[in-house]
Amino acid sequence: MSFFIGRIYLKSVGELIGRKDLRSIRKWCKTYHLQIYKDYSGEFVIENELEIAFGQPLIISLKGKYGKAWLDYYQAYKNNELLFMLDFGNDSKIESSNYIPKGKFASQIIRKSA
């Protein structure tokens, strides 16, 4: 059984976040609670953890907008399928309300919008 965990080295993380200095990359990782690992090949982070840290502002926004359905919207963002998630409602005509206009102007507006 082989078990592979994707790694991204700090220089590559810097390219993603727009930073070149290793100190600022480490600081960014610390800010987003991203663990930095070290071995003989250099310093790296786990690919999945980076994806979560990088997408954290979007995740927080989606949780605020969609509640428990945030994960579905996040998956749609990742798969470029967000358009399929949008609900524009049905195209049926809006039912008329029980409002009865009292003046001529209001009556004209109601007739034009119907």
Précis, in short:
This protein has 114 residues and is mostly helical. The protein has seven helices and three strands; from the N terminus they run βααββααααα.
Describe the structure.
The mean pLDDT is 81. The longest helix is centred in the middle third of the chain and has 11 residues, at 56-66. The protein has 7 helices and 3 strands; from the N terminus they run βααββααααα. α4 packs across α5 (70-78). The radius of gyration is 25 Å and the shape is elongated. A hairpin with a 2-residue loop joins β2 (37-39) and β3. The chain is mainly α. The termini are far apart. The chain has helices at 10-17, 22-31, 47-54, 56-66, 70-78, 82-85, 104-113, and strands at 7-9, 37-39, 42-46. The chain has a 3-stranded antiparallel beta sheet.
Q: What does the largest sheet look like? A: 3 strands, antiparallel
Radius of gyration: 25 Å
What are the secondary-structure elements, in order, as H or E?
EHHEEHHHHH
Beta percentage is 5-15%
Record field, number of beta strands: 3
Number of helices: 7
Strand order, sheet with most strands: 1-3-2
Task: Report the structural category.
Answer: mainly alpha
Low-pLDDT residue intervals, each spanning 5 or more residues: none
Helix content range: 40-55%
Euclidean distance between termini CA atoms: 67 Å
Shape assignment: elongated
The mean pLDDT is 81
Keywords:
114 residues, mainly alpha, 10% strand
Strands, helices and their partners?
Blueprint: E1 7-9, H1 10-17, H2 22-31, E2 37-39, E3 42-46, H3 47-54, H4 56-66, H5 70-78, H6 82-85, H7 104-113
Antiparallel strand pairs: 1-3, 2-3
Helix pairs in contact: 4-5
